[in-house]
Amino acid sequence: MIPAPHAMPPPAPGAARARLRAATRELHESVDGMFARGLDSRCSYGRYVLGMHRFAADYEIAVRALPRHSAWLADDLSRLALAPLSARATQRPAALAATCLGWEYVMAGSSMGARRMLRDACGLGYQDGTGATFLARHAVCDDWNAMRQRLDALDADDAPRMAQAEAGACAAFALVLDCFGRSFERIPQGRTGSPT
């Protein structure tokens, strides 16, 4: 069937995802740069778990989610004998659905990196239930595939909704960066335990 001359073609699959990727590129690269050598030591692994737990706790408030990721990470913190980071400020739920989608894009996307990081954690002696519960479970979840479907259904030409999603994703990445910065302060190089 030939579309009417005035009909607009549907947005290309992945267009919204590409917009979010472009909007968050610098923040994402900064986060990745904090673990440029992966989780290559118990020190770096402790920093990762500590910062990720703080982010997950705030993330779940932002998107009104049950404590799934933060519960897995709390188990890991306990196994590593690390006290959690306190909240820097009161996290509030995101007011708009598209903003929540941006936050969820960041957490769902981290499941892809979790697959590589799980190999690093296993190399350090951590497994599901023994310090790497979050990575083991996050790496096999279907969150990213579900997120891709949701993004493919989002009209990338809907400027207000895309702006909200981009703002949510940027806020989430900025929080990740802050949480990891704090975890590096808490665990200086070569130290994996809680501060005394």
| Contiguous runs where pLDDT drops below 50 for at least 5 residues | 1-11, 192-196
Order of helices and strands: HHHHHHH
Taking the alpha carbons of the first and last residues, their distance comes to 72 Å
Rg calculated over all Cα atoms: 18 Å
Secondary structure: number of strands: 0
Number of domains: 1
**CATH fold topology:** Heme Oxygenase, Chain A
Largest sheet: none
Tell me the fraction of residues in β-strands, as a range: under 5%
Helix content: 55-70%
Query: What is the architecture at the second tier of CATH?
Result: Up-down Bundle
Q: Quaternary state, please?
A: single chain
Counting H and I runs of at least 4 residues, what is the number of helices?
7
Report on this structure.
The chain has helices at 15-34, 42-62, 69-80, 97-123, 133-138, 143-152, 159-186. It has 196 residues and is mainly alpha-helical. The protein has one domain: Heme Oxygenase, Chain A. Helix 1 runs parallel beside helix 7, helix 2 (42-62) runs antiparallel to helix 4 and helix 2 runs antiparallel to helix 7 (159-186). The radius of gyration is 18 Å and the shape is globular. Residues 1-11 and 192-196 have low confidence and may be disordered.
